[in-house]
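Quick one:
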Amino acid sequence: MKRTTPVRAQNRRRRLGFTLLELLIVLAIIGVIAAMVVPRLFGTLDKSKINATKTSIDALERTIDLYRVDNGYPTAISDLMQTVDKDGREIDPFLDKIPRDAWGNDLHYEAKNSKAKTTRPAIWSSGPDGQDDNGGNDDINNWGDLVQQ
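Output:
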């Protein structure tokens, strides 16, 4: 006697895997989702680095204010790392090292701010591109909208 398999059982065996078309559709959907999500993640990362750099600039500005009370404005950031005051007495340094921005570049300092209508010293980061644009372009600075015209 000849064995026959019901049509349903044969169809079930054929449908155990995914077809190539189904796999391609799923991959296309994943690609579209990734194309929407990945740029947002990198944009968020840049914003967080910018905010971290602004915080570093603010902290340096407060440190300079503390230094200014006893010594006047420092002529360079390295003045904040001195272990001897102007009278030759040993002191604790205000900074252990020159602060860096979130991209690993040293912050810039100018005691006489020629960049804005303010008496505060100029402090800026080279920004995301790492190029010192003297506080302009994508540089991050402490004088904001006070730029001279």
